[in-house]
């Protein structure tokens, strides 16, 4: 009974995650465009364009010579991946996607199903109040996110490798040792973020 929710939710999420992986890869590559841009262009970023020593915010004047270079859109990025890495390049990092969906979505779907069944009154037809559905979703989603986060980090790192020259690729290997290493280092990194 409880295992059914884990299996159905997990399999559906794995198929969906692997099917949409090329779109996710393109999204990550688009997000990483211009990661190392020059100081003259970084002055045009919205957070940097607003400044003022007196505490008042002033806008810099737009200067045509400082316009940032035109960045390719999603179709151009997809075509660039196909040219540089071939069709298999669109599935760069799919093993981490598979692991992420196996851990995150299976946990999330299965726990939600279990909590919903546990909190429904017998003979009630399985209906539960909205506040319990919300609580079940929050609990299941939170636990699923904690379980799947290291695989998500590995997935983004694997997807980002493709923008580097092939000799600089880190060749992420998805296995339990890597997952264990990521899950141990993540709390320390998060703690350093909030210092």
UniProtKB/TrEMBL annotation:
Annotated keywords: Membrane, Repeat, Transmembrane, Transmembrane helix, Transport
Name the Pfam families on file: Mito_carr
Q: Where in the cell is it found?
A: Membrane
Q: Looking at the keywords, is Glycoprotein present?
A: no
MF (Gene Ontology): malate transmembrane transporter activity; oxaloacetate transmembrane transporter activity; succinate transmembrane transporter activity; sulfate transmembrane transporter activity; thiosulfate transmembrane transporter activity
Look up the coiled coil feature and give its residue ranges.
none
Q: Just give the chief location class.
A: membrane
**Protein transport found in the keyword field:** no
| Solcar-type repeats, residues | 4-118
Q: Which GO BP terms, alphabetically?
A: malate transmembrane transport; oxaloacetate transport; phosphate ion transmembrane transport; succinate transmembrane transport; sulfate transmembrane transport; thiosulfate transport
Q: Gene3D superfamilies attached here?
A: Mitochondrial carrier domain (1.50.40.10)
Q: Which domain of life, per UniProt?
A: Eukaryota
Q: Which PANTHER family match?
A: MITOCHONDRIAL DICARBOXYLATE CARRIER-RELATED (PTHR45618)
Q: Which family does it belong to?
A: Belongs to the mitochondrial carrier (TC 2.A.29) family.
What's the name of the protein?
Uncharacterized protein
| Protein species of origin | Musa acuminata subsp. malaccensis (Wild banana)
